[in-house]
Amino acid sequence: MDKVRLESRGSGVALATLTDPDKRNAMGARMGNELIAVCERLRGDPATRALVITGEGSAFCAGADLPALFGDADRPIARTHAELQDYYRAFFSVLELPFPTVAAVNGPAVGAGLNLAMACDVRVAGPGAKFGATFARIGLHPGGGCTWFLVRAMGASRALRTMLLGDVLDAARAVDWGLAEGPEADCVAASLDLAGRFAEVDPDLARAIKRSVGVAVETDDLRAVLEYESWAQAASASSPQLREWVARFRS
């Protein structure tokens, strides 16, 4: 792989870096496929407990490779639709990872780069971070789950405003509107520290909590959330850590 570098940072933490700084880490098919391969590899590695994603150079990810995706104006809409669905797999490979993920947004995260950042569970902004849903500025409808991500993060009104105007939010505004945490002077170091803390949680418990949050986001039905929580809590009730706490109360 030459578009995504994967490193182990120890204690169950992995770091994936987009490595095409000359193109500001714009995501073409090759980078997307490498990111999918990284996710498949980590999903099958029981030692991995958390993942940090960042970009090499001055950008997190400056968007999609527009000529490759949209350069053929005569291509049938159905074919474009199918190819876009395939392209989106990179974002959803990250979203569907069962363990916690953190985006260290070291610079602009625009278009596809915004989607990639939003596919992570937590985003830590650096001082130069920018979050841009700039699709409408170039005459393109948002894609890759952008609408879903932004509505969940900052509500329908702000999401609509941001996407219609193609706004680029700086780090301070992104934090204020709920897109990210920070800003941190060294967002990669801060993200690795946070991922390390996530990795200290029992992996089965961390995965269950991540799924519980997903259920809570996906439904307004409290009963469905309670149903999942009750099974997950019952399953965790025999954990050695809880047994130790119960023993303290008995002593």
Report on this model:
The protein is α/β, with parallel strands linked by helices. The protein has 2 domains: 4-199, 2-enoyl-CoA Hydratase, Chain A, domain 1; 203-250, no CATH class. The protein contains 11 helices and 8 strands. The protein has helices at residues 29-43, 66-70, 77-87, 89-95, 112-119, 146-165, 171-176, 187-199, 203-218, 222-236, 240-250, and strands at 4-8, 13-18, 50-55, 101-105, 108-110, 122-125, 130-132, 168-170. The strands form 2 sheets. The chain has a 5-stranded mixed sheet with strand order 1-2-3-4-6, with helices on both faces. Strands 5-7-8 form a 3-stranded mixed sheet. α1 (29-43) packs parallel to α4 (89-95) and α4 packs parallel to α5 (112-119). It is globular, with a radius of gyration of 19 Å. The mean pLDDT is 94.
Please identify which CATH superfamily of the largest domain we are dealing with: 2-enoyl-CoA Hydratase, Chain A, domain 1
Specify the biggest β-sheet.
5 strands, mixed
| Backbone shape | globular
Number of E strands: 8
The CATH first-level class of the largest domain comes to: Alpha Beta
Helix content: 40-55%
**Termini distance?**
55 Å
Spatial order of strands in the largest sheet? 1-2-3-4-6
**Secondary-structure element sequence?**
EEHEHHHEEHEEHEHHHHH
Poorly predicted regions: none
User: Which oligomeric form is depicted?
Assistant: single chain
Mean pLDDT: 94
Strand content: 5-15%
Can you tell me the CATH architecture of the largest domain?
A: Alpha-Beta Complex
The tally of domains stands at 2
Strand-pairing-aware structural class = alpha/beta
Query: What is the CA-based Rg, rounded?
Result: 19 Å
Q: Treating each run of at least 4 consecutive H or I residues as one helix, how many helices? A: 11
